[in-house]
Design brief:
about 525 residues, alpha+beta, TIM Barrel, 2 domains, eight-stranded mixed barrel, seven-stranded antiparallel beta sheet, binds ligand C2E, binds magnesium ion
């Protein structure tokens, strides 16, 4: 990637790195504030409903007692009972006997004083005649609700139903009839049609007309409680949350941006570091055994490059091979790998002509005019045969058909073995592969992993094996980790495998030691047999 592109990309990432956590913090503040204010409003609406329910229950009990009495209405015994009920009730102010629109006698005024009630506001679906906002001459400043069942009625103080949220005068409250959307009692701005927002639900919270509105339906009566909290409360609470969350978001943004900057610097510094590492010869090789699945014998190894940084940190190839490829350092790296193989395995190859060392090569290596010559020089230095080396090239490395055909052909003519690496991850067709001169096909680890999992890719390995057989190629399965995978592959005719089941990558001296130990064990078994 070009430096300016990296700088531009980094700047965008840094802006997003700060902006995103900040935006998230503000969004989260608003969300939490809405949640908190919804709970706030719901609490008041539930409180109103509790009062409505308790009042309704007390009125029903009172009327039942009055209707059950033997004494005639407005007789001294009946008025005594009314006063008893009155005293025992916490929500009812008075009870009385009604004819037409007049309360003929009551617990407060006895039989002497008739109270004019006026016409009912509406009749509830439960059969109650409801009068809201009734005023009496003895207390004209107070508004009362009168609930009448049959001939008896209860006088309720309108305020009592909504006697909550006293400390927050601008919270609007209402006890409301669901049938008629008419308020029994209300304080502040309440739109009676808000009740319709309940639908079939028991509770609803929404924001409307500058308020967060909570509506809660009564379970016993056709009534609901409403509480409306001004949006101003939400803004204040959102501000409170923001005061706590925004600094955290900002901090997270700064940390994220620093991390991005660090990585970008690291990324920009990497090519220079790889270059320096080549100069300082910081790369070394480990070797992973390649096993013959039929005999279990180690028939060869794959050389895998590692980078030991001056700090002692070991860096894996996925981190630096792409950098080396992008910055034209890969040819130099391959040269050091060849030198490393020569140094580590040279003498072993002289005495073991059938042993193979797999070397990963990149497309750029193929385009180097003297690549073949360099390879031959290394072989001469090792006094090894070209067949000792398997050159591994990925499908990606064989994209250019002309170069691919030329190079693989030339390598084969010089006696080197050629493997197509990570097979299945590219797009090579059967006909394209047929046109190349290849010896081995390395089945990519992702397909081995899928064996027996039922994943869609688990079928692919069978097709790859079929393809390799059609082309007459030897197969090496990569990343074999379980006995079941090894068995599956062996049964289907895959000749070789590498993977953690057999051994991880190690120093070449360890490879030799392990081979000798295995030979000794095999010898001991033969002698014993
Ligand atoms: P690759 O050529 O496909 O090498 C096999 C990779 O799979 C190695 O990773 C190896 O350690 C890993 N592996 C082997 N068996 C198992 C297993 O059972 N399970 C799992 N999970 N992984 C397993 P490594 O050493 O990190 O190398 C990664 C890639 O880097 C190699 O893939 C190769 O493409 C590239 N590479 C390594 N050395 C060189 C080199 O000298 N030159 C070039 N050009 N590329 C190299
Ligand atoms: Mg490889
Ligand atoms: Mg591979």
């Amino acid at each position: 990637m070009k430096k300016t592109v990296i700088v531009l990309f980094t700047l965008i990432l840094v802006a997003a790195g700060i902006g995103l956590p900040l935006w998230l913090a503000i969004e989260e503040s608003a969300r939490q504030a809405f949640k908190a204010e919804s709970t706030h409003a719901l609490g008041y609406a539930r409180d109103v409903v509790l009062r409505v329910d308790e009042t309704g229950r007390q009125v029903q009990v009172a009327v039942r007692r009055l209707e059950a009495q033997a004494a005639p209405p407005c007789s001294p015994a009946s008025i005594d009972l009314m006063r008893d009920i009155d005293l025992a009730s916490t929500y009812i102010q008075a009870v009385g006997y009604v004819e037409g629109s007049r309360m003929l006698c009551s617990s407060i005024a006895g039989p002497e004083r008739i109270l004019e009630l006026g016409p009912p506001s509406y009749t509830s679906s439960g059969g109650a005649l409801v009068r809201s906002d009734v005023r009496f001459p003895f207390a004209p400043q107070h508004s009362y609700v009168v609930l009448q069942f049959g001939r008896y009625a209860a006088i309720l103080h309108g305020r009592l139903l909504i006697d909550t949220a006293k400390g927050e005068a601008d919270v609007s409250l209402a006890a409301i009839s669901v049938d008629y959307s008419a308020p029994l009692s209300a304080r502040g701005y309440v739109d009676p049609t808000w009740v319709a927002r309940l639908g079939n639900a028991r509770e609803a919270v929404f924001s409307e007309d500058g308020h967060i509105v909570a509506v809660v339906r009564s379970t016993g009566f056709q009534a609901a409680g409403i509480a409306a909290v001004p949006l101003r409360y939400l803004e204040a609470r959102s501000h409170d949350f923001a005061m706590r969350l925004v600094p955290a978001g900002l901090l997270a943004g700064i940390v994220l941006s620093l991390a991005i900057l660090f990585l970008a610097r690291h990324q920009m510094a990497l090519p220079a570091a790889v270059k320096a590492a080549l100069r300082r010869k910081e790369f070394f090789l480990e070797y992973q055994p390649v096993v013959d699945l039929r005999t279990g014998k180690w028939m060869g190894v794959e050389a895998l490059v590692r980078w030991r940084r001056p700090t002692g940190e070991i860096v894996m190839p996925d981190m630096f091979i792409p950098i080396a490829e992008q910055h034209e350092l890969i040819v130099q790296l391959t040269e050091q790998v060849l030198t490393g193989v020569c140094h580590d395995a040279g003498s072993y190859l002289q005495s073991h002509p059938d042993f193979h060392v797999g070397i990963n090569v990149s497309p750029a290596d193929f385009h180097t005019p003297n690549f073949m010559h360099k390879l031959q020089l290394k072989l001469e230095a090792m006094q090894a045969r070209p067949g000792n080396l398997i050159l591994e090239v990925t499908e990606r490395g064989l994209l250019d058909p002309v170069v691919a055909r030329e190079t693989t052909g030339s390598l084969r003519r010089h006696g080197f073995a050629v493997a197509i690496d990570d097979f299945g991850t590219g797009y090579s067709s059967l006909s394209y592969l047929e046109s190349l001169e290849l010896d081995y096909l390395k089945i990519d680890r992702s397909f081995i992993e899928a064996i027996g999992t039922g994943a869609p890719t688990s079928q692919v390995v069978g097709h790859i094996i079929g393809m390799a057989k059609d082309l007459g190629l030897c197969m090496i399965a990569e990343g074999v980790e379980s006995q079941a995978q090894a068995e599956f592959l062996r049964k289907r005719g895959v000749q070789y495998a590498q993977g953690w089941l057999f051994g991880r990558s190690m120093a070449f001296s360890d490879i030799v030691r392990r081979i000798e130990e295995m030979e000794q064990e095999a010898g001991a078994v033969q002698v014993a047999g």
